[in-house]
Amino acid sequence: MPWLMVLILLFALGIAVFAAQNGQTVEVHFLTASGETTLAVVILAAAAAGAGVVALLGLVPAVRSRMEVRRLQAQLQALQAEKGEAASPAEESSSSS
């Protein structure tokens, strides 16, 4: 896992260097909005938007896993309660003999 963090940091550093080397002003159009900004801002905004999309997509399996864990924990508790109820009458009958 530490190598993944190093890779992510190197990639972010590469994006920052690329953005810093492209500081010229550009005109940007999005739907009905338009304006002028530096290319560095456009690059960094696109990288941040991409990271946000990846993070949101990564949440889907995490939420599914968490829901599955909760379902299985509830199932385990139900089985343990059932086993506890089934063991109680057997314990009573063996102790009364």
Short description:
The chain has 97 residues and is an alpha+beta fold. The chain has helices at residues 2-20, 39-96, and strands at residues 25-30, 33-38.
Describe what you observe in this structure.
- The chain is an alpha+beta fold and 97 residues long.
- It has one domain (22-92).
- The chain is built from two helices and two strands.
- Strands 1-2 form a two-stranded antiparallel ribbon.
- Strand 1 and strand 2 form a beta hairpin.
- The model has no long low-confidence stretch (mean pLDDT 83).
Question: What's the gyration radius in Å?
Answer: 28 Å
The major pleated sheet works out as:
2 strands, antiparallel
Number of structural units classed as domains = 1
Alpha carbon gap, first and last residue: 60 Å
Q: DSSP helix count?
A: 2
Q: How does the overall form come out from the CA principal axes?
A: elongated
N-to-C order of helices and strands = HEEH
Question: Main traits of this protein?
Answer:
97 residues
Blueprint (SSEs and pairs):
Layout lengths: L1 H19 L4 E6 L2 E6 H58 L1
Helix pairs in contact: 1-2
